[in-house]
Structure formats: structure tokens, C-alpha cells
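Good day; I would like, with your permission, to put a structural problem before you. A protein sequence and the C-alpha cells that stand for its backbone fold form the material at issue. Thank you for your consideration; the sequence and its C-alpha cells are set out here:
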Amino acid sequence: MTEQVVSNLPSPRIPGLDAEATPFLSVGLGLTGLALGLRPRLAPVPLALTALTALLYRDPERHTPDDTSVIFSAADGIVLDIDEIYEHRFLHTDGLRIATILSPFDVPVNRSPVSGVVRYVEHVRGEYRSVTDALAAERNTRSYIGIQTTWGPVLVVQMAGPIARRIVCRVHVGDHVEAGERIGTVRFGSRLDLIIQRDSIKPLVRAGQRLMAGQTRIARVVPL
């Protein structure tokens, strides 16, 4: 069952890790300590599972440069493709789409690529094709986050893959977001599409390039 969660409530967390990891790590470390006391040879098993949990739930602090002339990557991953499409949900015009694929071991946290106001949020249930499938963008389960900036609209599309079934959206319509601010999470491999009005930007990345959310400059805003 696909689940979409909308949450922007702060939660206690271990630095560098998502708050959702805290109970899992607590249990894992507790079992490791118990095994060390009773069966030391078994201790590596819960310890390894705890380490894997910490890997999958990474959420490092990032400091995004204060530069409104560029658009930053919204996800860690590799650029799958850059193409032109007509975007009818939020932009209502021709847009440039920069698609990024995230492996299960990439940081799963999505960040706002720009500063602006959230004007559109929608969740669409669908299939779970491979995120590299040509039909994934139209058929997979996905969430849309539309952000209005001072120079134009930007649409962020969080997309679930064959393993990922839970999309977390941390923003609501009317929220103001800063570039680099956390806006959502999709774990265990996913795709994130960034769609921007075609004549508003000049791309700075290419297919196959590795990106870091809130750090990599993926496009420059073209002055009107």
C-alpha cells in the first residue's frame, strides 16, 4: 500500500540522521549490547543491521550558498536526462525537465532547489516501474510540489520506484521555503524531476553527472 505523509513538525533526532531512525537505532544498539552480554559471537548481526539503518536514514546538515541567481539540486543522485516537455499542472507552459535518479544508498532527503512560496501540492497514486522507465514520469506514484519564485514557477516531482512505497512531503501550500530547506523524503531508491520554465534558465549539468542536494548548482536563472 502506497503511503504519502505530509509533515513539517520538528522531531528529536540524532545529528546527521533522520528522526525516524532513532527508535530503530535504539533497538539495534540495545540488542547489540544484549548479545555482547549473552552471546558475543552473535553481536555482529544486530550491529551490522544497525549500521545499515544508519546508512539508509542519513540526513546530514547542508549549508546552501545564498545565491538567488542559480537553482540548486533538489536531490542526491545522478542526472538521468535533461529534456523539454509541456508541463500542464503548475507551469502551464513548455518546461525543461532535469531528472535525477537516487540509488537506495543515496541520501533520501529532498531539498528545495530555490527560495519561494509553495503554491501547489498534489499526490498521485500509480505504478512502481523502474525509475529509468520511459513511462515512469507519467505512471509511477508521485508527489508534486510547486514553488513560486520571484522570477517564475518551479515544479518538484518526487517519484517512487519499485522498492520505495512511501513518499513524505514536508510542506503545505502557503509555506515559504528557502533554497536547501528539506521538503520531503523518498527512501530505498527513487527519482526526482525538476521542471522549470524553458526560457527562464540555462542548464549547468549534463546527463550522468552526480549531484548533491542543496549544494550542486544545476541551472542559472536567465535575466528577463
